[in-house]
Write a structure and sequence with these properties.
161 residues; 6-stranded antiparallel β-sheet; 27% helix; elongated
């Protein structure tokens, strides 16, 4: 009888612990608002005969009232539907509560890799592009990873639209 009481008590404690953890996770999701990642600019660093390099500048807005520490930002840049480049920013950066910060994503490209999108940029001076990925932030409630996906147009004379 004592053995059954200990087992029942242990099972009840485990169930209570699991419920508490699930409750904290649910509370964390309700209290944490996902950062808003949007386009800011595309800065042309250099162009050569084979290709060039750009910095895609994103704005990361923190809608929470507490600061966030971004741990990682994985990204892929597409021009029209053609992959231009990808990478990860692993240096941490902070975003104060109800504030924003700029993040620069370096991208090196070749004209051969761009194909029709590169020709459109050269001919019309305008191309559509897309940046997508995931951002991982540390909060007082734990770490959260959230996706982002933004599109815009790059005009070689006027920048981002």
């Amino acid at each position: 009888m004592r053995h059954r009481t200990r087992v029942t008590g242990a099972l009840a404690a485990a169930a209570l612990g699991t419920a508490a953890i699930a409750g904290c996770a649910t509370l964390g999701r309700q209290v944490f608002n996902t950062p808003i990642v949007s386009f800011k600019d595309v800065r042309l660093n250099g162009v050569g005969l084979q290709g060039g390099s750009v910095d895609v500048v994103l704005n990361v807005y923190n809608p929470n009232h507490y600061g966030l520490s971004a741990q990682r930002l994985d990204y892929q840049v597409l021009v029209d539907s053609v992959p231009l480049g990808n990478g990860a920013i692993t240096r941490s950066f902070g975003v104060r509560g109800s504030d924003s910060t700029e993040v620069s994503l370096p991208v090196t490209f070749s004209y051969a890799g761009l194909g029709s999108a590169g020709r459109a940029l050269l001919a019309r001076g305008v191309v559509n592009y897309r940046v997508l990925g995931n951002i991982t932030v540390g909060t007082p409630l734990g770490n959260f990873t959230r996706p982002f996906d933004r599109t815009a147009q790059f005009n070689s004379l006027g920048g981002v639209r």
